[in-house]
Structures are given as C-alpha cells and as structure tokens.
Design brief:
about 160 residues; alpha+beta; 2 domains; about 20% strand
Length: about 160
Amino acid sequence: LKVRVVRSSPPSPQFKATFQESYQVYKRYQMVIHKDPPDKPTVNQVRLVPVSFEDPQFKSSFNQSATLFAKYQMAIHKDTPSDCGENEFTRFLCDSPLEAENAPNGPECGYGSFHQQYWLDGKIIAVGVIDILPYCVSSVYLYYDPDYSFLSLGVYSALR
C-alpha cells in the first residue's frame, strides 16, 4: 500500500494527473456505501455562471433558474407564487453588491457572485448561489428541484 499526499488547491500536477481516477473511486464509494444513484450530477454537469445580465449563459438560463426557484420556494418553504416571482428572485439572488473582478493572481473565473448550476438531462435541477472572494467562497443560498431531493443536492453542493 502506498499513500501519497497530493496538493488539491492550487492543483498540483499529481492531482491533475490522477483526478479522473480519484473521482471514479469517489463515485463508486458514494454508490456502494451511501447508495447514491449513478445519475447523481457529476463534475461535467456543473456550470459556474457569473451573475450578470451581460453574460450569455446567465441570460439564457435565467427563466429556467427563476422557475426552479419558485418551484423550490413553494414546495420547501410554502411561499405563495407572489412571494417568489421573477422580481423577488432577481432581488434576492441576482442583485449583488459585489463587483466582478478578474485579478491577475485570482481564479480563472474571477471574483464576484456566481450561480453554480447543476444540470441533468439538459435541465437545471439545482443552483448554488455563491460568492467567490480572494480568501474564501461563500455559499449564499441553494435551491433545487424538489423532484430530485433523493439526490441530497444540498449535501453534494456543500461538499463540492
């Protein structure tokens, strides 16, 4: 048995070289031990989108995200439809005091507010609203399609 400590942040060459193999071990572990379904969202199904109406990905997914937010709020928090319309969604989870910044030594995506979208079969099933800052990542809110609650997307998102 050989044990190796591999730097994950920032990713070392060893981490990058063994990522897929490590991920497959993780996925098998989750399926066998925690009984996760094989179709649980994967790394390739998570999209980080800047919260900006100037961003094409954000604009193209806005209606789907807002509709999912309303479905979540009504099912989980028992909000009325008027409590979770597009205006409420925008005010609560799209308007941010943070300014987008791309620092030379910062992450490739830059700093600011983001929607971390979880896609399955061409549709968004969860959105983690996060702020990426120079010394931390702040989880602001997570909402998901209640039809997929068996996937424990809140736990998955927190661990991710």
